[in-house]
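Recap for those who missed Tuesday's class. We walked through two folding examples back to back. For each one, the amino acid string is listed first and its predicted structure tokens come directly after. Nothing is annotated here on purpose, so try labeling regions yourself before you check the end of the notes.
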Amino acid sequence: MLEHSTHHGYQIHLADAVYEPAEDSYLLIDAALNEIAGSNRRLRILEIGTGSGIVTAAMMRDAPEHRYAATDISPHAIACAKANRVPAIRADLFRGLRGRFDLIIFNPPYLPTAPAERVDGWLDHAWNGGADGRAVIDRFLGQAPAFLADRGSILLLLSSLTGIETVCEHMASVGLVVREVASIRCPGERLVVLRGSLSSK
């Protein structure tokens, strides 16, 4: 069942089985809007793991001139994102997609999660990052460069609990130039957004 709510100034629909926007969502919104600010061309933008769709919905509201697409593995998330007018399809990461994108955004499940800490249902996909927090991130980085346009970039959100330096090394190993573009401190962790690009722009 969808409920209407206001989050960080955004009116969105939420559902029980979908990740509720939090500090990481808002950090990624700010980083994404900064990334596309002042672009003099129409960008193709893809969000992986869109959840409620709040990140793409915010971009569509503030930068409607670009072309947007989103995916999520959860059918509940897809229903929620569509209710928020996000053009979303159900997919495991990039499965079934074609073409290349100027910007790919991902707020992955990044929390290190032991088997005993798993939760039942689709919400487990929203935060279960495997034993080291990087299980889904590693899969994403193995696939993302093939979907980037020339001069394309990714924005990847993760936690200090995930191993930021290790993720940076993995990004560099797949040919991405990496830099940190946003961060906030939360109780017990630091959240960061890493930008990986096919050029040093």
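Example two. Treat it independently of the first, because the proteins are unrelated.
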Amino acid sequence: MKRLALLFIGIMLFPLFSHAGGIVTNTNQSAAWVRMFARDASTGIDAVYFNPAGLAKLGDGLYISLNDQIISQNRYITSDYQYLNTSDFEGSVFTAKFASVYAAYKKGKIAVSFGFNVIGGGGSATFEKGLPMFDMSASDLVPMINAPIDMTSYSLDAYLEGSSVYYGYQLGVTYAINDMIAVYLGARYVSATNTYVGHLNDITIYDASGTPYDASAFFEANYTNITNVSGYVSTLPAGDALTNATAIGILSSQGLYNSGMTNGAAVLYLNGVAQKNYAASVLLDDQEGDIEQKGSGFTPIIGVNLSL
């Protein structure tokens, strides 16, 4: 009796410690869910998803359920990153095809069932102004660039549209041990596809007078200028102290100059600064993204229905 009581308590507590789906799992898997959000003890046809062992409570026969939902949402992202032009980013989500299909055949103590649903994702989200992470790199240019021009603001053209859908295909068998206890054994195959389309264009920085500078061209010009200075310094005796004022100014702005630095050491540092400016010019140029990710998975499902 003591063992039976402990087993019963364990079964009752198990749902509190389990989260089989994860944060991307959809729970709105039937039209009936819209009217009653708790379908976990369903003994109707949507029990194929919510409580497959509960299918033992169906009368003998064939059952088919077709569901569809139209979903529209707004998504809001807020960032407190100090350099952003705006802290609020809004996206819209819409899908007209959020289907759930269930079928079950019950005969005596056995029920065979099939389910198809959008187990995760299912719609597309559009952010007309991109995401905070798009702005962050551009916004960092403002405090970073203070020589030879002091920058005070930035602008860009950002856009992102992403879609995600996880299709679930479920098949299993329910068996009624007696009037109180039924068990289920089945499996679900999941096929996932994620797509992302967007751009990050026209990154522009402005000085105090409002004069615009194309960010990519700005760093490309710096790269050319530093490369020319490095080329000139490299023609001087490597062991002599650096005296070129332009080279000293460039290295000082980077915190790399020290009194008595030789021409050879200066060339080494100048080339490093030049490469950083070249990399920045490439990264800040117009960017286009068209990405597709695919994957699949398979998992067993075990269910128990208790009618005490």
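Answers for example two:
Residues 6-19 have pLDDT under 50 and may be disordered.
The longest helix spans residues 263-283.
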